[in-house]
TrEMBL record:
Disulfide bonds: C815-C842
Organism: Ovis ammon polii
Name used for this protein in its record: Contactin-associated protein-like 3
Domain of life: Eukaryota
Alphabetically ordered keywords of this record: Disulfide bond, EGF-like domain, Membrane, Repeat, Signal, Transmembrane, Transmembrane helix
PANTHER family: CONTACTIN-ASSOCIATED PROTEIN-LIKE 3-RELATED, PIKACHURIN-LIKE PROTEIN
Length: 1198
């Protein structure tokens, strides 16, 4: 209904962004001023040639303001000009006001858009359907792993004209039309609306005998009521469409009435309906109201309220109602206050996509009050809504939704928790308002305008904190994130659980081990030079976590380390006379330390001194040689009790020409000894005992258990009459029981599956003066209100028994780990070493965590946790989910010889996975997988040969269809199967899986197209010889089509290639490649085929050629195995070339040094704030000028 300037939507494709000023582009951050968003227009080359954020992660975005609301029909993207920075996939968001955003969802995918495969090609997408917006935001999801995020963008479309009207909830429009102009059998009403209110009348028309048509928004859903007369109200004829339509986004509505037939459309969903009754609706009054009902609905008995929000392009039988209203035509009566524009609300809703999502908001600290107001809606019965810690650990505020009710808890040290419960059934998907206040000594809460049933008096004054967390709970460590299968990234971890410390923001680096990285404010290279003799130069480091948080992280870690590098020229670490230190560092406890690296504390030796390879054997550190040239000592500090480094002091920088520099890496910690701290209970009478559990007013207990026993007590603590106990009461029941003076109370979680399945299950039990709760794994949390009588304090006096009871009956048989009481971890292993019937540690983690090992990876047990063995997987990485990809140039090939490997290894290693292949072995079935991206045909994807001229070939025919040939009998013709799903040589990534069992072959393409065929050539694959990828020359006994495809080979990207246990690309591309692999031509490591590495991709941007060396090669001597690729004449020639290049580099370095010398000596960088990028770059350049090749300088770290 909207008018387009072009008057033709087919021509609505003009570029909209290229003519905009730089100020129209904004972003989350920028790498530098030349990487700013103003350089993000398509094909722009000035600046750095595009936008790049400061940090490449999934939280970055690039935004464009089109200046006004436009019709958007297409988008296009590029990477950063001439760089390795591009985005491989992204989300597209749009908004009218730049605050309330909506994700654009393509019809064929709920996910984002595929992006670029290199820096400069343009990827263009036409949008179906189109949309109208002023603001667009691009959110990178993935990017080139060898570069950064880099984007240049264009938006296509045209101007959008519309008419709008705003209703304030008390107004409406009444349109009176000429009955002669109305089609007696057909009515068409169309409009768009947006609102924040979940109830309101959109339109109403009535007639005699209670006949009416009403369109109403009720609880976020649109309902069309139809009453053709003499029917009880509310009308039995009602159509309902949509959900959560009160989201402040535009929604389109179309109502078509044809006699008694009705078509009702909301957005893209249509409902057809035939109304009841004999008469149609043509005898209704010639008046229709929009936004409300005249006379407060005299003829409509069901409750309603007027509409509060905006209409756009409101048409009744082709008549523009809003235009008539603006022109004050007599046909339209305006009742109340309406405006002909649509203002953007300042209230912006946010969606939490998972239970781990959270929002961090700054607050005003040190106020004597806390006041929070917000609205929420959810269908979940339970969840964390708000947490905030007060200043000076004076308390904490926690607001949770439990069983559809809101519970506000205020905890203060030394005082019982104060709880307020309000509301009921709040998980109904509707908006509910919350207002809570803590001021002076008063705590109160209101829900939906109603005060809670009670308020509490507080003890002492409170001081508000400076941070509020909305949503989410935290894992205790990166180790816990690793065992949830989370990838590397920034996470908040809560090392002390329910203890007083706030969560810490850390970087979790997920390798085979989970590494926790805590950054500080001085990670760059800093140059120090003195003008005042030997005055000290202390440098202080501030970490993103507090010292208490750091101490907890370090204490719970298995190992911690921090790398400190000293670069020195005429600058020493100690005096030559008596070894007095002139440089030192300070740790967490404010103690001065003078030991360096791998040496023991106070040894005053660097690593080279312990290893005996310092550049001057008279000294124990390279820097102490006091040479007039740059040298270095790189040290790794690993004594946990001294970490992290908080200060570095360098004094010996006062000599003539004396200079020094240093760099301090982040604090790195691995493991979590509390997460895996465990004990195995072998008899029912054994237990571990600990001091009495102090949980008088508030107690929380959490742990993991696994068992095969049907019952047993996890822990028990007794008092004179009171007690607390957690037990496995039955194979499917876990019970939390306690007594506070009025008899036992119990909370039980039941499961449809048994808990005694020898898998780890997590238990969390809480008890306070208001209620007790229990949650086991992912089962719903169960709660039990505290008894009305009895005392509130849990009074215990016995020891805490873990794994058994004081009576030595009903003991637990199995394993318990990661036991925490009120946030404090108990050392089960230490107690288990001295307790009969209990052993420290617990084997058998793969039964729980093996699902983390994907794509054929095998779970391997470690003493603490698991590791994923990717040996027989075509993937690598910590979870075997990083596919191994290779770019094949023209004429290139990879040959994997099974027999050579068998002859060499079978007698030595009978467990070798590839030892299965032997000339006398008969295969009755095999599995093959591969992924590819190419545009060339015909192409050979995979060829497996045998000593008996049997083979398997997988090719792309000239038309791009997939063809599979099996020849399992040398005397018969091969079975040929043509899978004409589509042209697969389209430059897109495709996945093929083949599984043969005797004569039955299953084929799956792209995980959705599946086919089963029967082989006629045989059921046994005999004496498998080799697997070939790419070009093959004259394969013995192959059919003509395979010969043609083999001669042409394959040009493009192959990944995830596997045949049985053989993974040829891994053997060829990964270090330590096998001797049975031969590479011919240009085969290079690709980042990922899914990221677009394909035919024609520049090798410098997307691929890494195989370097010459043992087991690895680029172009090699024809037919030579990689292990023998080095030849003596090549070595001599390479050596000569290396010497010549080396001499030229030295000459160039000397020239550069002369040119830079004056500038370098004018710099005086003595602290972190004064150190800029230019100084760091210059220093690194000067350090790299050293041309001395000396074996003793292997400690250099640049």
């Amino acid at each position: 209904m909207a008018n387009l300037d072009s008057q033709n939507s087919d021509n609505c494709d003009a570029p909209l962004a290229s003519s905009l000023p730089r100020a129209s582009f904004t972003s989350s951050s920028e790498l530098s001023s030349s990487h700013g968003p103003g350089f993000a227009s398509l094909n722009r080359r000035d600046g750095a040639g595009g936008w790049s954020p400061l940090v490449s992660n999934k939280y970055q975005w690039l935004q464009i303001d089109l200046g006004e609301r436009m019709e958007v029909t297409a988008v296009a993207t590029q990477g950063g000009y001439g760089s390795s920075d591009w985005v491989t996939s992204y989300l597209l968001m749009f908004s009218d006001g730049g605050r309330n955003w909506k994700q654009y969802r393509r019809e064929e995918s709920i996910w984002g858009f595929p992006g670029n495969t290199n820096a400069d090609s343009v990827v263009h997408y036409r949008l179906q359907p189109t949309f109208e917006a002023r603001f667009l935001r691009f959110l990178p999801l993935t990017w080139n792993p060898k570069g950064r995020i880099g984007m240049r963008i264009e938006v296509y479309g045209c101007a959008y004209r519309s008419e709008m009207v705003h209703f304030d909830g008390k107004s409406y429009l009444l349109y009176t039309f000429n009955h002669k102009s109305v089609n007696p059998i057909k009515e068409i009403i169309s409009l768009k609306f947006k609102t924040r209110e979940n109830n309101g009348i959109l339109l109403h028309r009535e007639g005699p005998n209670d006949k009416h048509i009403t369109l109403e928004l009720i609880k976020g859903k649109l309902i069309l009521f139809l009453n053709s007369g003499h029917a009880n109200l509310p009308s039995p004829d009602a159509l309902m469409l949509g959900s959560l339509l009160d989201d402040e986004h535009w929604h389109s509505v179309l109502v078509e009435l044809l006699n008694t037939d009705v078509n009702f459309t909301v957005d893209t969903h249509t409902h057809h309906f035939r109304g009841k009754g004999e008469s149609n609706y043509v005898d209704l009054n010639y008046k229709i109201s929009f936004g409300g009902i005249p006379g407060h609905g005299k003829s409509v008995a069901f409750p309603h309220k007027n509409f509060h929000g905006c209409f756009e392009n409101l048409y009744y039988n082709g008549v523009d109602i809003i235009d008539l209203s603006k022109k004050h035509k007599p046909q339209v009566l305006i009742m109340g206050n309406v405006s002909f524009s649509c203002s953007h609300t300042q209230t912006v809703p946010m969606t939490f996509l998972s239970s781990r999502s959270y929002l961090v908001l700054p607050g005003t600290s040190r106020e004597d009050k806390v006041s929070v107001i917000f609205q929420f809606r959810t269908w979940n019965r339970a969840g964390l809504l708000l947490t905030s810690q007060f200043q000076h650990r004076s308390g904490a505020l926690i607001l949770v939704l439990s069983d559809g009710k809101l519970k506000l808890s205020l905890s203060q040290p030394g005082h019982p928790a104060r709880d307020i419960t309000a509301g009921a059934g709040l998980n109904d998907g509707q908006w509910h308002s919350v207002s809570l206040s803590a001021r002076g000594n008063h705590l109160s809460m209101m829900v939906d305008g109603e005060a809670a049933s009670m308020a509490h008096s507080l003890r002492g004054q409170i001081e508000s904190g400076d941070t509020y967390y909305l949503g989410a709970l935290y894992e205790q460590s990166c180790e816990a994130h690793w065992h949830r299968g989370n990838s590397s990234g920034l996470y908040y971890i809560d090392s002390d659980g329910s203890g007083p410390l706030e969560p810490s923001l850390v970087y979790c680096n997920m390798t085979d081990t989970a590494w926790t990285s805590v950054q500080h404010n001085g990670s760059h290279l800093v140059k120090v030079k003195s003008l005042n003799g030997e005055s000290p130069h202390p440098v202080f480091f501030k970490y993103i976590a507090s010292m208490d948080q750091l101490q907890t992280i370090i204490d719970y870690a298995d190992n911690c380390q921090q790398e400190l590098t000293f670069h020195c020229k005429k600058s020493r670490l100690s005096t030559p006379q008596d070894g007095t230190p002139v440089s030192w560092w300070v740790g967490r406890t404010n103690e001065t330390h003078t030991y360096w690296g791998g040496s023991q504390p106070d040894a005053q030796k660097c690593t080279c001194g312990l290893e005996g390879n310092c550049i001057d054997s008279q000294y124990y550190c390279n820097c102490d040689a006091d040479r007039n040239e740059w040298t270095s000592d790189t040290v790794v500090l690993s004594h946990k009790k001294h970490l992290p480094v908080t200060q570095v002091v360098m004094r010996d920088t006062g000599q003539p020409h004396s200079e020094a520099a240093y760099s301090l890496g982040p604090l790195l910690c691995s493991g979590d000894n509390s997460f895996w701290n465990s004990a195995s209970f072998n008899t029912e009478t054994s237990y571990l005992h600990f001091p009495t559990f102090r949980g008088e007013l508030s107690a929380d207990v959490s742990f993991f258990f696994k068992t095969t026993a049907s019952s047993g007590v996890f822990l028990e603590n007794l008092g004179i009459t009171d007690f607390i106990r957690l037990e496995l009461r039955a194979p499917t029941e876990v019970t939390f029981s306690f007594d506070v003076g009025n008899g036992p109370c119990e909370v039980t979680v039941q499961s449809p599956t048994a808990f005694n399945d020898d898998r780890w299950h997590h238990v969390k039990a809480d008890r306070n003066v208001k209620e007790a709760s229990l949650q086991v794994g992912q089962h719903p949390r169960k709660t039990q209100p505290a008894p009305a009588d009895g005392h509130s304090r849990l009074q215990l006096n016995s020891q805490l028994f873990v794994g058994g009871t004081a009576s030595r009956q009903r003991g637990f048989l199995g394993c318990i780990r990661s036991l925490r009481l009120n946030g404090l971890a108990l050392d089960l292993e230490e107690r288990a070493t001295m307790t009969p019937g209990v052993e420290p540690g617990c084997p058998g983690h793969c039964s729980t965590y093996s699902h983390l090992c994907r794509n054929g990876g095998r779970c391997r047990e470690k003493r603490r946790g698991i590791t994923c063995d990717c040996t027989v997987s075509a993937y690598d990485g910590p979870f075997c989910e990083n596919d191994i990809s290779a770019y094949f140039g023209a004429g290139s090939s990879v040959i994997y010889n099974f027999q050579e490997h068998y002859n060499d290894t079978f007698s030595k290693n009978s467990s070798s996975v590839t030892a299965l292949f032997h000339e006398d072995l008969t295969l009755t079935g095999e599995m093959a997988t591969l992924s590819f991206r190419t545009t060339g045909t015909p192409s050979l994807l995979l060829y497996v040969s045998s000593f008996y001229e049997e083979y398997l070939s997988v090719i792309l025919a000239p038309n791009g269809s997939l063809q599979i040939r099996y020849k399992l009998d040398r005397h018969r013709e091969p079975d040929v199967f043509n899978f004409g799903f589509k042209n697969l040589a389209d430059g897109q990534l495709h996945h093929v899986r083949i599984n043969r069992e005797a004569a039955v072959m299953f084929v799956e393409v792209n995980q959705n197209a599946r086919r089963q065929v029967i082989l006629s050539s045989g059921t046994e694959f005999n004496a498998v010889k080799s697997l070939m990828l790419g070009t093959i020359l004259e394969p013995l006994g192959a059919d003509p089509d395979t010969l043609r495809a083999g001669a042409r080979g394959f040009t493009g990207c192959l990944s995830a290639v596997r045949f049985g246990p053989a993974v040829p690309l891994k053997a060829a591309l990964r270090s330590g490649g096998h001797s049975q692999v031969t590479v011919r031509g240009h085969v290079a490591t690709a980042s990922r085929c899914a990221d677009g590495t394909g035919p024609g991709a520049p090798a410098r941007e997307a691929t890494r050629p195989l370097s010459g060396g043992a087991g690895r090669s680029g172009p090699t001597d024809e037919g030579r195995p990689l292990v023998n690729a080095d030849r003596s004449d090549s070595a001599v020639i390479g050596g000569v070339i290396a010497v010549v290049v080396f001499i030229l580099l030295c000459i160039t370095a000397i020239a550069i040094r002369i040119y830079q010398q004056r500038w370098l000596y004018q710099k005086n960088e003595t602290n972190i704030p004064k150190t800029g990028d230019n100084a760091e770059t210059a220093l690194k350049s000067e350090l790299n000028m050293q041309c001395t090749v000396n074996e003793s300088q292997k400690e250099y770290f640049f």
